[in-house]
Automatic annotation (TrEMBL):
This is Acetate--CoA ligase family protein. The keyword Ligase applies. The keyword Ligase applies. GO terms for molecular function: ATP binding; ligase activity. It comes from Paucibacter sediminis. It comes from the Bacteria. Transmembrane segments: none annotated. Residues 261-357 form the CoA-binding domain. Gene3D superfamilies: ATP-grasp fold, A domain (3.30.1490.20), ATP-grasp fold, B domain (3.30.470.20), NAD(P)-binding Rossmann-like Domain (3.40.50.720), Succinyl-CoA synthetase domains (3.40.50.261). Keywords: Ligase. Pfam families: ATP-grasp_5, CoA_binding_2, Succ_CoA_lig.
Length: 727
């Protein structure tokens, strides 16, 4: 193997190839420090000589062709006796079958590596450049049944994904095939030291840093095997080269101007009708949110004022540049208006509400004009305005005292309570407002809808808002990241979660990547959804698998605040036996705590005072029966939370019992369960989650607890699911 990686890559580019042969790919890997079989290359069957045969009793004969990605399926790989006649026969057969149909450049004779063809002995390792995250490295079960095996394993167990930009250490604890290979089982030693696997992964990340994406965009090793001698050896490879230039860093925008968008000192609105409609609703919502009408201008010819706000005829008539311009004009007018704003320097930021540009066929020229104007502005000293949208509902900002969501107030009432430490960032406006409408007690600091992300992206917002200490929970809905914006998003998310704050992500459109999935095992197993899931979890992000999960995680972590889920020892309490069983059945990663002797004694005192001694034993789950009253419940919650062996408590209340004040005016009394619970949790460092399992007549009880800062669910299994997704 005298060819070096630069020589191989230069030759492929000169031949206008976008794939390497397997032999070339193995040479690239060998140069990176990965063990590969000994190999001899032949131009054709006639070149075979006895001295070409490798050591050993068997030899692996392979076709060499850059347009055959998976040779096994075509009969391009054969293991035969290491005899000249046997090898010659196989070469002749391969040549006759494959040479007429593929770009066969020769054949390789390979050292036959002895290994066991079984789960845990074969890996699939894929380096791939992704548009969302840049270089990624995936590890899954390998061999010819790789995709089938991955599909049979639970999500999160089937593969691990790492990034040269994001991965500080290789976490293999949840990877089924890695654990099987590197841990002892049933008194049998591990097949491979975990350090050996980590060392190989580190070499591949180094290769990614050196050569992706300028020279390589994918390297797939399948299988990477554990030989009988205990070595990790790459037996086969598929290598792809780039067909176009790729970004290596997310695009730079003047994000210092985002403060002008989120908290503008001056605003203008264009596209407002006297007769009503979205523009008029936006104007009224801006004013209703408290924005100073003297700092607001309506761009509308023929009027002096509208709703008490001064009007000007056009963009050029604005007396001074504004921090934020909101455009509600028809989509076809947007490029021209933006061009005027950019050339005249009339706004630091623009929210483009209308859709119909990038979504509709035939608008490509309009979009190109808009992007060209913005690109020219980025090259100027001012760098032009930031643009949010189009096809969005815009922004509701409490610090900015404005609301561009064009939904009438009676249709979308927000809580009049104090500001909630929540930033909801959503690509879909409808998703954002329907979620917020579920939370009667939540008044988010920011609700940001981005639409098409023509300029500003999800990653842009998160990278800037991470510096706002007033935000504790970042809830993000995204259908697709712009190029490398997933990387930008995760860099910011990692910093946020490291500070003890929460990032919740719901990624929609979780389907396998179409065309590439059909030709690449790596893309099929490690598609966009799986890559997002694994990289996000590695950065401490909570992944919502359903919309219900998304809402549950927001509610849970807003109520928990800085009460961290530091351990997994759970105290489970209920007044119904079925609910105790439900809690025990749905523990997931949590364990039922063992109460201390002091806690048991304290609980027995409560049972005595509540006359429950003949009915209740101390246990976990703790079944209080429907006979336990409000004071008894409070005492039990206090006792289990005080136990040093308890990390968190899940407390169910089936509210139909006559022993508890759970309905009407009685539920509001200071000695009722709701008031007692709220008081008890003030200053309590441990999480305590409530479950109110009853019908709609008990909605007010649940609302009381939620408003009082108690994390509240209506089913125990839903509460435990949200907790599982949080750890």
């Amino acid at each position: 193997m005298t060819n070096t990686a630069p020589t191989i890559l230069a030759r492929a580019r000169a031949e206008q190839r976008h794939t390497l042969t397997e032999a070339e790919g193995l040479q690239i890997l060998a140069e990176a420090g990965v063990r590969v079989p000994q190999q001899v290359l032949l131009d054709g069957p006639a070149a075979l000589r006895a001295e070409h045969l490798p050591p050993g009793t068997k030899v692996v004969v392979k076709v060499v062709a850059h347009d055959i990605l998976h040779k096994t399926e075509l009969g391009g790989v054969k293991i035969v006796d290491n005899r000249l006649e046997a090898v010659a026969e196989v070469l002749a057969d391969m040549h006759a079958r494959l040479a007429p149909h593929y770009a066969v450049s020769g054949y390789s004779l390979n050292e036959c590596i002895e290994y066991e063809r079984a789960f845990g002995h074969e890996f699939l390792v894929g380096l791939r450049w992704t548009e969302d995250f840049g270089a990624t490295l995936s590890l899954a079960c390998g061999g010819v049944a790789a995709e089938y095996l991955a599909g049979q394993l639970r999500p999160g167990r089937e593969l691990s994904v790492f990034s040269p930009e994001l991965t500080a250490e290789f976490d293999l604890a949840s990877n089924a095939v890695a654990q099987f290979a590197t841990q002892p089982w049933r008194q049998q030693p591990a097949l491979l030291p975990e350090a050996s696997l980590r060392a190989l992964l580190d070499k591949l990340l180094t290769l990614a840093r050196q050569r992706m994406p300028a020279e390589l965009i994918e390297i797939e090793i399948n299988p990477l095997v554990i030989s009988r001698a205990g070595e990790l050896i790459a037996l086969d490879s598929v290598v792809r080269l780039p067909e176009r230039p790729y970004l290596t860093e997310p695009p730079q925008r003047p994000l210092h101007k985002l403060a002008k968008l989120l908290a503008p000192a001056s605003m203008a609105v264009m596209g407002v009708s006297e007769k009503g409609g979205p523009g008029r609703t936006i104007l009224q919502n801006i004013l209703a949110q408290g924005f100073d009408p003297a700092a607001l201008t309506v761009i509308k010819p023929g009027l002096a004022t509208l709703d008490g706000v001064a009007c000007v005829a056009d963009v050029s008539a604005l007396p001074a540049p504004v921090d934020l311009l909101v455009l509600i004009v028809p989509a076809a007018q947007v490029p021209a208006v933006l061009g005027e704003v950019i050339t005249q320097g009339k706004a630091q930021a623009v929210i483009v509400i209308p859709g119909g540009l990038e979504e509709k066929a035939g608008t490509e020229q309009l979009v190109a004009r808009m992007q060209q104007a913005l690109l020219a502005a980025r090259a100027s000293p001012d760098q032009g305005p930031l643009i949010n949208g189009g096809n969005c509902l815009g922004v509701r900002s409490l610090p900015g005292r404005y609301n561009t969501l064009f939904i009438p107030g009676e249709k979308l009432p927000f809580s009049a309570g104090p500001e909630s430490p929540l930033a909801l960032i959503s690509q879909s406006g409808a998703f954002a407002i329907t979620r917020l409408n579920q939370f009667h007690h939540v008044n988010p600091r920011y609700c940001i809808t981005l639409g098409n992300q023509s300029d500003l992206t999800v990653g842009d917002y998160l990278s800037q808002l991470q510096h706002d200490p007033a935000i504790e929970v970042f809830a993000v809905y995204v259908e697709g990241f712009k190029e490398l914006d997933g990387l930008k998003f995760l860099r910011a998310a990692r910093a946020i979660t490291a500070s003890g704050r929460k990032v919740i992500l719901y990624r929609a459109g979780r389907t396998q990547e179409g065309a590439q999935a059909s030709s690449s095992h790596t893309a099929s197993i490690a598609g966009n959804a799986a890559v997002t899931r694994e990289l996000a979890r590695g950065c401490g992000v909570m992944l919502a698998e359903t919309i219900t999960d998304f809402e549950a995680l927001i509610g849970l972590h807003l109520a928990l605040g800085r009460r961290a889920l530091r351990g997994r020892r759970l105290a489970a309490v209920s007044n119904a036996g079925f609910e105790c069983v439900s809690m025990a059945d749905n523990l997931g990663p949590f364990q039922l705590a063992h109460f201390s002797a002091a806690t048991e004694a304290r609980l027995k005192q409560v049972f005595a005072s509540e006359r429950l001694t003949e009915l209740v034993d101390v246990g976990n789950p703790l079944d209080l029966t429907p006979m336990c009253g409000d004071a008894g419940y409070e005492a039990v919650i206090a006792a289990v939370l005080a136990d040093p062996g308890v990390d968190l408590a899940l407390v169910g209340v089936v509210p139909l019992t006559p022993a508890l004040k759970t309905l009407g005016a009685a539920a509001l009394e200071p000695d009722a369960i709701a008031a007692r619970w709220i008081r008890l949790l003030q200053g309590q460092p441990k999480p305590c989650i409530a479950v109110i399992d009853g019908g709609s007549i008990y909605d007010e009880l649940a609302r009381l607890l939620e408003t009082g800062g108690v994390p509240t669910f209506r089913r125990a299994d839903r509460a435990l699911r949200a907790l599982r997704l949080s750890v």
